[in-house]
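Deviations from the work plan: none for this task. Representative record:
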Amino acid sequence: EPEVTQTPSHQVTQMGQEVILRCVPISNHLYFYWYRQILGQKVEFLVSFYNNEISEKSEIFDDQFSVERPDGSNFTLKIRSTKLEDSAMYFCASSRDPSSYEQYFGPGTRLTVT
Amino acid sequence: AQKITQTQPGMFVQEKEAVTLDCTYDTSDQSYGLFWYKQPSSGEMIFLIYQGSYDEQNATEGRYSLNFQKARKSANLVISASQLGDSAMYFCAMREFMDSNYQLIWGAGTKLIIKP
């Protein structure tokens, strides 16, 4: 069964460093998302991406964040200068098309900023 | 105001019993969808069940069913014949379809522990 994959599973970085979280969505999916979950808290939407551009973004997704689909398979989330409060689990998700209700989630990347 | 409310932070249930996890939602949209996800301790997010606002029948998927009461704006998850492997966090989420809005809005979750 096709699945969303994410790498790395765990990333430790120092405050102020740039990180890139990688996701490979399901191959025939067209709509991509990033969510984050701070430990013990609810999942929060960051951004959705369709047709090579951002469709929606939340207030969390400020200028420190960017997304990119650099090739036909990868979907990346970049945090330019990490802060302690960026420590969280980051989930990538994809859906077949905008009207498809189910979003398939990857296993997540745990980001720890020290 | 919270769009998704899960009032049970934690629940203990005896194995083989049925369990109901509560979820209420708040939206002014006529077209929306409600989701339940399971998050085991390993951290991944597993889709369980979906209910569309226009669906007349309650959704069912194996041992999972969704008790959808539209007038009360509730979408409770029912797990029948609980198993030890059901121990996990359970999240209710909503998607509002107006304005081409595709993000999922999440509740705070319920930690379910199944006792042998």
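The two ends of chain A are 37 Å apart (CA to CA).
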